[in-house]
Amino acid sequence: MTSLSSETTSVPVLTGPRPALAALRRGWLHLVLVPIALLWLSPLLWILVTSLKARTEVFDPAAGFWPQALEWGNYPAALSVAPFGTYLVNSILVTGGILVAQLTTITLAAYAFARLNFPGKNLLFTLFLLQIMFPIYATFLTNFVTVRELGILNSLPAMIVPFVASGYGTFMLRQAFRQVPTELADAARLDGCGHFGILWHVYLPLVKPTLIAFGIITVVTHWNDYMWPLLVTNSEGVRTLPIGLGLLAKSDSGADWTRLMAATVVVVSPLLLLFVIFQRRFVDSFMHAGLK
Amino acid sequence: MAEVVLKGVSKAYAGRPTVHAVDLTVADKEFMVLVGPSGCGKSTTLRMIAGLEDITSGRLLIDGADVTHAQPQKRDIAMVFQSYALYPHMTAYRNMAFGLLKTTNLGKVEVDRRIREAAEILHITHLLDRKPNQLSGGERQRVAIGRALVRQPKVFLFDEPLSNLDAKLRTRMRGELKRLHKELGLTVIYVTHDQIEAMTLGTRVAILSEGRLQQVGPPMELYMRPANTFVATFIGTPEMSLLRCAVTPDGEGSLLQHERFTTTLAARPGAADVFLGVRPEEIRLTRPAEGMTRGIVERTELIGSEALAEILIGQDRIVARMPVSEAPESGAEVSLSFDLTRARLFDATSGRALAAI
Lengths: 292, 357
Description:
The complex is a heterodimer of chains A (292) and B (357).
Chain A: H1 2-15, H2 19-51, H3 74-81, H4 84-115, H5 121-133, H6 140-150, H7 156-160, H8 167-179, H9 182-190, H10 195-206, H11 208-223, H12 227-232, H13 241-249, H14 257-289
Helix pairs in contact in A: 2-14, 3-14, 4-8, 4-11, 5-8, 9-10, 11-14, 13-14
Chain B: E1 4-13, E2 16-26, E3 31-35, H1 42-50, E4 57-62, E5 65-66, E6 77-80, H2 92-103, H3 108-122, H4 137-150, E7 155-159, H5 167-184, E8 188-192, H6 195-201, E9 204-209, E10 212-217, H7 219-224, H8 229-234, E11 241-250, E12 253-257, E13 262-265, E14 273-278, E15 283-286, E16 293-302, E17 306-313, E18 316-323, E19 333-338, E20 344-347
Parallel strand pairs in B: 3-8, 3-9, 6-7, 7-8
Antiparallel strand pairs in B: 1-2, 1-4, 4-5, 9-10, 11-12, 11-14, 12-13, 14-20, 15-19, 16-17, 16-19, 17-18
Helix pairs in contact in B: 2-3, 2-4, 3-4
C-alpha cells in the first residue's frame, strides 16, 4: 500500500505539465506492439470470417470483408467431407505418443551426456548434434524403408516411430541439466537417491521450463506435420487432421474455401485453446529456457 | 559411538595422486577440522568419507564397519555443503524431510517430530514453509544443518559451510556450531581453509598440504609445537617468522649462529642447518644495549588493540607484535630479543621440527 500511495503522489509532479507526453512515454511500446499483434492476428481472423461466409461471397469484391449472414452450416458440411473425429483422435494419439516418447528418451540421453562419463561420449554427442543439422526430408527415404521393414506402414506407429528420439531436445535438455549445480546431485545421493532418483527428484523439477518449451515445439511440429503422415498412410482410419485438410483443398471441384477454412478452425483450435490456457506458463518457459 | 578411521586412504585422478595415504582416526563426539590451503586435498578427503568420491586405495571404517566401497546412503552420515545444496523447488520442510523419507522407514509422524525438533534447535520453525530463494544466506545455512540433524547420523560432514556468509554472520554461526556440537554430542568432520575456524571449532585439527597429512592435534598444540615449517607458518596470523641459522657444537650444548647474532643452546638440535621459528608475540623490543640483535623497521601497522612491525634482520624479515604505545617508527633501527624458551628449531632441509631447544 505504501508503494501505491507514493506512486500516486509522485505522478502529478512528473506528468503535471504535459500529460499527453507522459502517456506517450509510458505507452510507446504499445504503439509498436498493437499493430504487430493485429498483423499476426489478421490471418486467424480472416480464416474465422471466411469460414462463416457463403461460398459466393469469398471472391466477390462487392460483398465486403464481413459475411452477410453467418453460415454456420459450413462447419458440419466441412466435417462431413472426411471423418474428422477419427482424424482428431489420430492426431492426438500421434502427437501425444511422440511427446511422451521424446520426453522419455531425451531426458535419459541428456542426463547421460550431462553427468555421466563413458567412452565415446563426445563422439556420440557430436553425432546427435549432426542429426540436428540434417533437414528432416533428407532422412525421409531411409525412414520410409525402415518403417516398411518393420511392417508398420499405414498405421499410427508408422507416424510415431521415426520421431521417438530428438537430437535437438537432447541438446537442449543437456544444456539445462549442466546448469544444475553438481552439489545438488551430491546432496541427493546422500539423501538416498540413485541416478533415476536424482533425475526424477532434482533435475526434472528444476528444468521444467525447458521441458515445457520443448514440449510446445514438439507438439506444434507434429500436430501440423503433413508430409510424413501423407507418405506412410493411405487409409482413412489412420490419417491425421492436416491430411484431412488436404482432402478438402484437393476435392474435385477445386478448393472449397469456406469449408476449408471451417475445417482449419477446427484443426488449429485445440492448439490455440491450449495456448490461451497456458499462455503465461508458455511465455515464462521460453524466457527461462532462453529460446525465442 | 561413532568412530571414523581412515587407513592409508588415497585418491588418484587418472593416475595422478591427489591424496596420499592419509591415516586419521576421528574419535566419537570429536570435532575434527581438516584444514589446509586450497587444493590440499581436504575436500576430496571429506568427499571420500561421504562416499561421493571413490577411494583409490586404503580403507575407511565408520563405527567399526568397513564402508570403503559402500554407497553414500549406507554410511550413516550427513553432509552440509558449501553452497548448502538445498533443493530449490522444495520448501525448507520438504528439504529436511526428503532424505529421511528416502533412507528410513519412519512414519510421517516421526519425520514431522524430528523436523520440528531440529527446527526448534536451529530457530527456523517459522521458515519451514519457505523455499530456499525466500531465505537469507544464514537461514539457508540453518536449514542445511537442519537437514543433516534430522537424519541423526553417526557422523556429520561439513564442507566449508561458513565461507558464503559475511564476517559477522560467520562468527555467529561458528558459535552456534560449537554449541550444537557440545549440546547434542555430535561427531563432526569439518573442512575449512580458514585457520581461525579451525582453531576455534576443532577439538582436534588435521592439517593437510599437497595431499599429505602434516600434523594432527589439539589446536593449541599445533600452535605451540608445530611438526614442520608448513604447519608453523600456516597456523597463526601473522605467521611465524623463520630465521636461517647454523648450529655448531659448543661443549655440552651448541652455538646458534644467525648472520646478525649468536646465542647458546643448552642442547644439540641434531642438524647443522636450521630455521629458528619465532612467533610475533615472542619478539620483544628492548632498550638499545639489551637486545640480542638489531633490525630496521620496514613497516608498522596499527590494528586497533595492538601494532605489528615488520623488521629486517640481515636477510630475514620478521613480524613482531606489541602494544600500540610501543610501536616503532618506520625506518627506525630497533634493538630486540626473542623468547627462546618458546622458540622452535626446524631442520632447514626437511623442514621437520627438531627436539626442543
